[in-house]
Amino acid sequence: MKKRIQAVIAIIMILCMGLSGCGAAQTAQTAVGTPNEGSSTAADAATEDDNGVVQLTVWAEEANWDVLNQMIESFKQEYAGEAEFEITLVQNADAETKNALLGDIYNGADIFPIADDQMSSLVAGGALAPIPNAEEVKTANMEDAVAAATVNDVLYAYPMTADNGYFMYYDKRYFTEEDLQTLDGMLAVAEASGKKISMDWSSGWYLYAFFGGTGLDFGINEDSVTNHCNWNSADGAIKGTDIAEALLAIGAHPGFASMTDTDFMAGVQDGSVIAGVSGVWNEVEVRKAWGNNYGAIKLPTYTCAGQQIQMTSFKGYKMMGVNYYSEHKDWALKLADWFTNEQNQALRLSERSQGPSNKNAAASDALNEVPAIQAVIAQSEYGVLQRVGNSYWDAMTEFGGIMASGNPTGKDLQEIMDTMVAGITASSVQ
Fold it and tell me: How far apart are CA 392 and CA 395, in angstroms?
């Protein structure tokens, strides 16, 4: 990514110094330096304009590079003769798109995947180029996916997937249908087998599962920055401390382990984990590990205040966005549109088991052959679109750590819940 103003200044400086002789010109060129992969310099911008090469950088998780390279090759074939392209894939976690881009917008990628919860911040930061063919895109994609890519009635990204949620993976060799109905039943099987059920309690994204079905209140305020929350309520059929007690009981169970996604996959591969809460991004590797024994289902119920409470989830969508400051914004928009068209959403489904947002691609019979996507669909009945202010995340990470470690200091549970809610509802800047 280059700043146009910087490019002009750099070129003027080089030309001026060129009047003093070749040595001065060489010094200026050396000072500019050599561009690194995924970035470019002001002098580079002049070169691109002179030789007509369209250089674009795409952020993506490395697991998706093979399928993206197929899409890039078909894009080059589609537009052969119109331009020469140099398209570079650079590793970047989807969850880090917002922070990485807003941290250095001018040197960010031209094109990048976005989880829907990052949209408001990216738009507020002036980072996203509006979509020029919005009506065409709206017609082709699911209404909820379009809504997730829209801020203040403006479409700012191309919908790509409709499967950004979580559910329960399980190894069919261990569980009956009855076992899968309740977390208690699954934990009993894991304990008896000397194995583990995993879930990431360091993340508020997953921890929401224990709160959403309790009848307690949580959401983002109209300012789109702060949250409202009464998860520390001391009244009602389910109180905040009831949830804390339930989590402490689960965390202490021999059949449970709080694990990150990376640790979950390691456990699946070495046989120590026989079920776990995760999403479709791990489907390919889970299927490799468990083969025909791989299963996926909506989240079970869990015991809280003597009741069985259905575990809930955040559901969401992913889309492709284009940097407003892209040097080749028109071509970047064309490539983002290409990455998310019907044929390439179908390719993602077949190659990466990622659920499409495109209506035609989603109508494919192939969708019924992927248990993970069927689990996403089943869980969506108990899910809500993720709309939270930033203060939620750190507060939940701290709370989850206390629960996973068994409240080692013996802190009063009401105090723990009060602290968590104070953190969730604190003012923060997106």
Answer: 6
- Torsion angle in degrees (nearest 10) through CA of 142, 164, 288, 302: -120
* DSSP letter, residue 417: H
pLDDT, tens digit, 9 for 90 and up, residues 337-357 = 999 999 999 999 999 889 999
Residue 66, burial from CB neighbour count under 10 angstroms (0-12, 13-18, 19+): exposed
Check whether residue 276 and residue 325 sit in a common domain.
no
Sign, CA dihedral 321-324-327-328, equals: positive
Whether 332 contacts 347, CB under 8 Å: no
Q: Which residue range(s) make up the domain with 241?
A: 167-315+372-424
Q: What is the CA radius of gyration of the chain?
A: 24
Q: Domain count of the chain?
A: 3
pLDDT in tens, 211-263: 999 999 999 998 878 999 999 999 999 999 999 999 999 999 999 999 999 99
The residue among 13, 34, 51 that closes a domain is 51
304 lies in the same domain as 183? yes
